[in-house]
């Protein structure tokens, strides 16, 4: 696998991971007992930390990308393994 493919796969996994992780750990002003700014949405996060989110996404994306590359090189799971309805059977 070329290094550019690895970078592209890592970036895609990173973006997906970051979006999936966005709602986790969010605390609103009401939950923290902080006064809201006039006009602020009730669901707005009180202490959003994008750097922390990016770091968590980077670590998880690195692990998932490494597993993907290992599967690509070692063929742990192939297309034949995923053929659940038997469309790929010859005969």
**Unreliable sequence segments:** none
Helical coverage, percent range: 40-55%
Strand tally: 0
What is the straight-line distance between the termini? Answer: 33 Å
| β-strand amount | under 5%
H/I helix tally? 3
Q: Report the order of strands and helices.
A: HHH
* Structural class category: mainly alpha
Question: How many domains make up the 3D coordinates?
Answer: 1
- Could you describe the largest sheet, including whether it forms a barrel? none
Rg over C-alpha atoms, rounded to the nearest angstrom? 20 Å
Query: Could you say which overall geometry the principal axes of the C-alpha atoms support?
Result: elongated
Mean pLDDT: 91
What does this structure look like?
By secondary structure, this protein is mainly alpha-helical. The chain has one domain. It has three helices and no strands. The longest helix is centred in the C-terminal third of the chain and has 25 residues. The two termini are 33 Å apart.
Which features characterize this protein?
mainly alpha; 3 helices; 91 residues; single chain
List the helices and strands and how they pair.
Elements lengths: L2 H19 L7 H4 L17 H25 L17
Helix pairs in contact: 1-3
Short structural description:
This protein is mainly α and 91 residues long.
């Amino acid at each position: 696998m070329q290094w550019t493919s690895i970078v592209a796969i890592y970036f895609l996994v990173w973006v997906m991971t970051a979006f999936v992780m966005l709602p986790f750990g969010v605390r609103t002003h009401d939950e923290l007992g902080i006064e809201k700014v006039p006009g602020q949405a009730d669901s707005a996060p009180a202490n959003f930390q994008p750097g922390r989110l990016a770091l968590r996404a980077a670590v998880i994306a690195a692990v998932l990308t490494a597993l993907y590359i290992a599967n690509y090189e070692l063929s742990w799971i192939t297309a034949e393994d995923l053929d659940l309805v038997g469309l790929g059977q010859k005969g």
